[in-house]
Structures are given as structure tokens and as C-alpha cells.
Specification:
The protein has about 230 residues and is α/β, with parallel strands linked by helices. It is built from seven helices and eight strands. The mean pLDDT is about 95.
Length: about 230
């Protein structure tokens, strides 16, 4: 599904201009703000599909391009600067959207940012797409503490073959967390890597899979934000 062209808004930050691509719902029931990863932009299959499909379901979707990316740099800035360039933009966007619930999220590094700053942005939920549980080949270097930093419900959408941590790895890590983590749900993307594009195979079409997933994610957002 392809939605209307997004509204492009440049925003000032302490690190230079960032950029918002906003797909507005006609009668918004929730606002979803999504960030990108360190190795890509806002044009991955997950972010593009959600931005195209969710406004028709009453969810305004804003994809945020970090200042380092807008400036054309190849290497992302350190986590503290990512958080600092994200938090005030999300707060301002949520304030301008009026009294609708806010859900934040993102792909890979964007998911880390969303989890770390969920409390500061006032989000009611986090959508973590390809959460990088650990660097490839280094499972002992866990980032589970960042995932658990979000004091709100979290939906993790993870590739079955993600070298940064599969859905099974995340479930295993959560199972060992003190007291359990009832607010975190994990959904597997079949035969997908870190880009979250399902492997094309009999019965599996990446675009079709994501169209169905977008519907389920919309239901989760609206239920979480109710």
C-alpha cells in the first residue's frame, strides 16, 4: 500500500536541523513517532509500510531523520546525542498534535533511542523494530537494560535470523529478567534479518507480510494508547 506524500518539516535542534516526514490521519486516534537506525534511513520496509498504512487506521505517523543523517554524515553520533536530538522534537510534535496518545519507536538504533527516552517523551508505548540486543557475534554484550528502560508496554518486532539478536534470543533474555517482563511482547518476522524484510519464499511475500503486520501493529498501538 502506498499512502499520500508525507508532509516534510525541517526542525531545529542543538545539533543542526532534523527532519520530520509526517503522514497525518484524518481523525487521529494516536501519534506514532519513528526513528531510523545507524546504518539506514527512514525508507526501510517496516517504516515505509507503517507510514503508508497506519494513517488510514487513525494513527498519524511521523518518521524522524536525525540531524547527523540530514547533514549527510555516514557515521551516527553517540547515543546521548541521539537522545538529545530526539526528545525535544518528539515532545514538541506531541504537543502540537493535541490530546492524542503518543507511541514512540524506531528501527535498530532508533528503537534503542525510543526505549531510553520513553519516560522523557511521555510515551504510552514503544514499538521496537529490530531491537539490537547485542552486537553480531557478541551475545554477552547485552543491551537488555535499554529495552527494559521503557516504563510502558513494548512491542518488539524481530527478524528470525537477525544477527543482532533473534526473537528467541530476546524472549530468552526477558525470561531471565528479574520479576519477569509482562509488558514486553515479541513478534517474529519469518526468515528475516536485521532489515526486517521476510525472505521471499512460497507463501511469503515481504510486502504482503508487512501489510498484514501493519494491521496488527495498529491494533496494538490503539489498544496500548487507549
Amino acid at each position: 500500500m502506498t499512502g499520500p506524500e508525507p508532509l516534510v518539516v525541517d526542525v531545529d535542534t542543538d545539533q543542526g536541523p532534523g527532519r520530520l516526514l509526517i503522514g497525518e490521519a484524518e481523525r487521529p486516534r494516536a501519534l506514532l513517532v519513528l526513528g531510523h537506525g545507524a546504518g539506514g534511513g527512514v525508507d526501510g520496509i517496516d517504516l515505509v509500510t507503517l507510514a503508508a498504512d497506519l494513517p488510514a487506521r487513525g494513527i498519524t505517523v511521523a518518521r524522524y531523520v536525525q540531524p547527523w543523517k540530514v547533514a549527510g554524515r555516514r557515521i551516527a553520533v553517540r547515543p546521548a546525542l541521539l537522545d538529545a536530538a530526539w526528545t525535544p522534537v518528539v515532545r514538541a510534535l506531541a504537543a502540537s498534535a493535541g490530546p492524542v496518545p503518543l507511541v514512540v519507536g524506531g528501527h535498530s538504533a532508533g528503537a534503542r533511542v525510543a526505549c531510553r527516552t520513553a519516560a522523557a517523551t511521555g510515551a504510552q508505548g514503544v514499538l521496537a523494530l529490530s531491537f539490537p540486543l547485542h552486537p553480531p557475534g557478541r551475545p554477552a554484550s547485552s543491551r537488555l537494560d535499554e529495552l527494559l528502560a521503557a516504563p510502558v508496554p513494548v512491542l518488539v518486532v524481530q527478524g528470525e535470523r537477525d544477527p543482532f539478536g533473534s526473537g528467541d534470543e530476546i524472549r530468552a533474555a526477558l525470561g531471565g529478567a528479574p520479576g519477569g517482563v509482562p509488558g514486553v511482547a515479541v513478534v517474529d518476522v519469518p526468515a528475516a534479518g536485521h532489515d526486517l524484510s521476510p525472505r521471499r519464499a512460497p507463501g511469503i511475500d515481504p510486502a504482503g507480510w508487512w501489510a498484514d503486520a501493519a494491521s496488527a501493529i495498529a491494533d496494538w498501538i490503539l489498544a496500548t494508547a487507549a
